[in-house]
Amino acid sequence: MKRKIYYYGHPCLRKKSHAVEKITPEIKQICQDMLDTVHFHKSSIGLAAIQLDINYRIFIVRYFTRDEKGEVILQEPTLFVNPKLSHPSKGTNIDREGCMSFPEVYESVERPNSVTIEAMDMEGKSFKQELTGYSARQVMHENDHLNGVLFIDRVSKKRKKELEPLLRKLKILYKTHNAS
User: What is the pLDDT of residues 55-81, one digit of tens each?
Assistant: First the structure.
């Protein structure tokens, strides 16, 4: 079942998520609902449970490649339960990020070039990935959500100050959507 995504201004986006203690039928249903939500939003490349006001350490990433024309080719979603990031590279890069909780907002964010992630799938099976480039960026972005950190928190102080009018506008614009 597709779930409602909450937008900037909703308090759930600042919550720290709780670890999944055990893979239960409820957790499996949450994972399936998240997959349904990502499939509904066809251009989505990531979603954290907390964006649906579900307080568990779960997120989904849709890695992507580009074809010879530069068109995005999305892969099937990868689901991460209780992810743990380690070994971020010392080298960093700056690239643009967006977020489903910030419609039409894209900002340049500096992040490590690579990272290792360990997690479980929705069946409780552990796996590990060593990621570089935008794939690493995606898991770092989604993992930030689980800690109540938003991508706008990672822009420069100067840029964040410039964004304040837009962020105030977003809070007002989505106040009705976020209610319920």
Answer: 999 999 999 998 999 898 999 999 999
Per annotation, catalytic residue among 130, 142, 162, 164:
142
Please report where in the chains the tokens 């706008």 appear, as a residue. 152
Asked whether 25 and 19 are in contact (CB, 8 A), the reply is no
Please tell me the distance from the alpha carbon of residue 106 to that of residue 151, in angstroms, as a whole number. 9
Angstrom distance (rounded) from CA 104 to CA 57: 26
pLDDT of residue 180: 60
| Residues lower than pLDDT 50 in the chain | none
The answer to whether residue 75 is domain-embedded is: yes
Segment holding 97, helix H or strand E: strand 92-99
Residue 2 amino acid letter: K
Question: Is residue 6 in a domain?
Answer: no
Total tally of structural domains belonging to the chain = 1
Q: What angle do CA 144, 3, 75 make, to 5 degrees?
A: 65
Is 118 a catalytic site residue?
no
Give the C-alpha separation, 152 to 141, whole Å: 11
Domain assignment present for 3: no
Residues whose CB is less than 8 angstroms from the CB of residue 102 and which lie 6 or more positions away in sequence, other chains included: 7, 8, 150, 151, 152, 170
Question: Which domain CATH number covers 67?
Answer: 3.90.45.10
CA dihedral 25, 28, 33, 37 (to 10 degrees): 180
